Amino acid sequence: MAASERRAFAHKINRTVAAEVRKQVSREYSSSPQLCKRRSSSQQVVPLTEVVEPLDLEDFLQNHPLDAEPGPLRDLMEFPADDLELVLEARECRTTEPGIPEEGKLDARVRDAIEIYTEDWVIVRRKYQSLSSSYSPNTSERQRERQKGLVRQVFELDSASEERMGSEDLDDLKHCSASLDDTPRGSWASNIFDLKNSAADSLLPSLLEHTAPDEIDRRNEELRRQNRCRDLLALYPAPDEDEAVERCSIPEPPKEHFGQRILVKCLSLKFEIEIEPIFGILALYDIREKKKISENFYFDLNSDHMKGLLRAHVAHPAISTLARSAIFSITYPSPDIFLVIKLEKVLQQGDIGECCEPYMVMKESDTVKNKEKLEKLRNAAEQFCSRLGRYRMPFAWTAVHLANIISSAGSMDRDSSDSESERKSTWNERKRKAFERASMGDDACSFSNFRPATLTVTNFFKQEGDRLSDEDLYKFLADMRRPSSVLRRLRPVTAQLKIDISPAPENPHFCLSPELLHVKPYPDPRGRPTKEILEFPTREVYAPFTSYRNLLYIYPHNLNFSSRQGSVRNIAIKVQYMAGEDPSQALPVIFGKSSCSEFSREAYTAVVYHSKCPMFYEEFKVQLPANVTENHHLLFTFYHISCQPRPSTPLETPVGYTWIPLLQHNRLRTGPFCLPVSVDRPPPSYSVLTPEVPLPGMRWVDGHKSVFSVELTAVSSVHPQDPHLDKFFTLIHVLEEASFPFRLKDVIVSENNVETELKSSVGSLRLASPEPLVAFSHHVLDKLIHLIVRPPVIGGQIVNLGRGAFEAIALVVSLIHKSLDGAQDQRGHNQLLAAYIHYAFRLPGPEPSPSGEPPPLPVQCATLSRAPGRPSSLLLSRSKSISSSNPDLASSPCSPDEEVTRILACKGVDRSHSWVNSAYAPGGSKAILRRIHPHYSADLKQAMDRASSYLEDSSSLPAASQPRPTRRKLLHEELALQWVVSGSAVREAVLQHAWFFFQLMVKSMALHLVLSERLDTPRKQRFPSRFMDDISALVNSVGQEVTARSHKDSELAERLNTSLAFFLSDLLSLVDRGFVFSLIRAYYKQVTTRLQSSPNPNGLITLRMDFTRILCSHEHYVTLNLPCSPISPPASPSPSVSSATSQSSAFSSHVQDPKVISMFELSGSFRQQHFLAGLLLTELALILEPEAEGVFFLHKKAISAVHSLLCSHDADARYAEPEVKARVAQLYLPLLTLVLDTLPQLHDFSESSGQRSRLASMPDVDIDVDGGSTISPSVAMAIAGNPLPPGPRPSISAGPPPAPRTVSPLAADTSRTLLICALWVLKNAEPGLLQHWTSDLGPGQLARLLDLLHLCTSCFEYKGKKAFERINSLTFKKSLDMKARLEEAILGTIGARQEMVRRSRERSPYGNQENVRWRKNVTHWKQTSDRVDKTKDEMEHEALVDGNLATEANLIVLDTLEVIVQ
Fold it and tell me: Cα dist. 488→69, 362, 461, 485 in Å?
């Protein structure tokens, strides 16, 4: 019969004969009797425990240009051209002017300081890094922002609940007669009783029309697409913060340190009588530490009339000296801090008691009675002011206990607002606040948050001439705190001083810095200023200097002139800063006090009347000049002041001289001094000698004994005031300026011994005090880096200090970490060092140029080249000793080659591990050609290879364009080399803080690429091969340390693992990405090898999981996975299964497409092409199928990693287009297969789990569980004419399938997160791919897929508003019941059994809790936050989000069902 004559039904009959079926089955299945292990495609199966060799990303992208992918997918092919940029960011200056010295002859230290404190920040910015999950995490706050504008979904559950609430107050309706009043208006029941007046329902016009099924499907699809939520995961709780190991934050730029700041305003000072000007001094003292903790603040509250009495001495007072308010900084608040107020008056005849008597006796009310006395006193005061106006005398003092002010004023409200801000603050902020609280002590009090208080101080105590020292003051202050104070029994000097104390505002106006610079904002220079008062902290403050500051404080203590002959009683000391020995060389650098000039050339101490052994409490503040020389000194001139005018008696009679040279061996002299005083004026050239030297022909007070005590204190960002730092900086400056010979203490530094001294100073940096080391950390690190990359040339020879400088950097970094143990982030990174790298570090050399401007000459690394054209000035071939960075070497190496060879050989460096895969191994496709002597051993060959390449130029340019050899090196190359060859002690110090060196290398590499214009160079040619070898060896070495220490030192292993992962992630933006992938693969091999013998395998798996999560947080993670490769499947699906053509060609049209299968399986091709995604999903697959117990916490960690990554994709604007998001979802298609295989382990969210339990209990439906039949259902399907199902996915291990085992159930929250991830893939994947996949699923797998969809429906079922209210009330009730339960547990009235029974009876609205009680690490999905109760608005919002989530989940299920039935 012809084909055209055959009947219609015959066309649908499957003509496949049994022989064809048997052939097809034999091809598809192995010879196993169970026929359950399907052969994979033609490629070899790689077990999941092994890491496949990744594609060479650079070669792939070179062979597939960007033009191959037009449209929005083009951006997924390659990193953007502007991915890396160099930003020169202006350094923020607090003051309107920088306050640096004017140009001129500057000291080398000052020149360095100006450069460091004024140059712009050099920031290497990865432009798209902010889009990664490391820097832009999906927090709860961000989720709430994305949930704004959600459409409210209407559910019958809520409507019925509202109706029931409205009818609760009605009687039992079952026994009431029905009437119109009893039924809701317009309801169906009401229409029964009022059919005439009821409104007709709207007609359904198309109800009875015939509509094609395709048209119905199209309409349904359009309706499903309306008002869909674009981002599914925006409706789901944010990822767990505790698992976010990839979290990073850009460090804050270095800034000046301030403690808690208080503002003190001096409002008025009024005595009972007003006869003369009175001047005030404010300062803070800590009596527990017995230390003055602030500089002095001088104020003048006198009336204009009183000020006029001194007009002859002060012509035009500077506006900066008219300040009446001051801001004090307190780093370490304490209840023992006092605000001490001292008063001074113009010097007059009589001791202090006589001068205070009128103020104690006379009252304002007795003004008329004492008119004559007052007039007499005023006339005398005018005379004294006219004649002695420049001199002061002590008058009175009082003190204010700051803790009493705070307690009486009361703290501001710190209720829920503070706790809320604390809860919302970042991890770094919480850690910093905790560190601050811990550093303040148990009895600390806060000065940053109290109510402003206005005080009126009425009692002052007169000063006593023999008790003016700070030690006496501390005794008085301690006595003030006692109830029976001796001071309270003394007759006071009555006055009224009004001061206002309040927390300082954030940005006060009209503020002056301690250097009298205008602090921003400063609206009007004519306004009365507020002064910032410099703090002298009670303990160390570890903060780097960020601005130029060079202040010197002079504190005269006491003088003993008891043996001085002559009339020496009213003694005043004149202090001058002398630039030379001529009197005219006194510099105007002494700060003025109040109502005077801003700076003066001289200043006087207060006079104690008729005392030959006076005490002093003065503080003289000096601005040190920019160029301090050996001739600069402080000159102290002692005068006897004649209080009474007598003929032929001068006002001032010099009675002694002494001085302090400020520089000694190029170091600023500070500290206490006890000096002899000369009767005669010093002779010429005295300034370079100390007064202790007995100069000939000079007379000395008391036979050249020390009679004058004075102390110098410097607050300087120029002079370190540490002997080890001073020596280091001095030698560096001597080398830079080649100022030989130079005297350094007892040593004459010359070219012959400067190298030894420099090495000694570098090594002794470890002995420096922590506080100045941290303060000058930027200077120290800059100089050490300069020594590495620009080794000095001494006598024509290069001094190689690389090793010593590298060790010094490691020790400095370690010391800074120890000093600031509490100021570290969650990864153990010190924020000061991180800020140094991010902002301050720059390559030594020319100024960098920002992107867009032509950079200067390229920075090339030309180490000791062996080229014949090497300059002879280097004299490298001499037999004379050439310094080496290794002290273990012989003193006379024959050549540089041998020197470097010995460096490597003596350390026994094994570079065999640098070949990370066969491609890079010798003889491989990417092998590096070497010249090797055949008789050398392997280790020596590698050492010679390294020595040869080390001595060659680092540039990969052609020979014709090679630059002339110089002594410049590249920091990243030197760091890698020194790390690899370092000794055990240094290596240990480096490993402890490996993050610092990794980040330093990364920034150095980035700066090198930008400055040398190599960003457009192919990645394989950006860096020399020897440097890549060092990176390989370094990564391998650190990987070995991670695996070796994972058991004995887990904390260090965790830090190393994280640092290494971030380093490799950074390298992906800079170097050959295929090379980085090979390093990742090598690390995985190390961990896998170690797992076989590790006593703690879960710890290693956790480290590997964290490693993978950090790598996957890269901002170009999608691009790195090659989502747009040509391995992608065809765009259109195969014809429908139900079509006649499909039935008639079951073995031709419906043979499973291996490409589609490999996309949904963790096949070798998938893991090779999508390398990072394959690693992540492989980790998930291995963790979800554990054989051992105790890995429940790994379930959460692995699933959380996938969830976090999908959240970042949802929030990333680059992937907003559906076409792009479909390509992203393509990277996660194997997740669907994983979830299907994990179905028996998932938590059951359905109320009736009959069918799901039946399906989930079977390991695989396709497997013949009975074992009695040799015909599997799949073969029967084939014989019946249906296409062959795919069967189960390949198992991890080869061999026959294992017997069904008891699976480990996942917790409810973990199961829920895994399901939402699967729904995300189903939502965003290309429908054609899903149709390909589902059409090839067998009955068992298809049943599992339907079971999964049913589970998703149950899991995300809307519970109704009532459920949220019930949860809230239960949570609140639980919190109230905790006290009772605690009492029961303590009293023993409830045991573990009763507790277990009680918990087993509790049921969660989101599923039962069985098998959870005894697993402490299994937690339920947290629908509610940690807060006990929630507001109505918050519950409404949660119900809104849950309704949208339920709606979207069910729509995704419907979309998937539509794909299945097509």
Answer: 90, 20, 9, 5
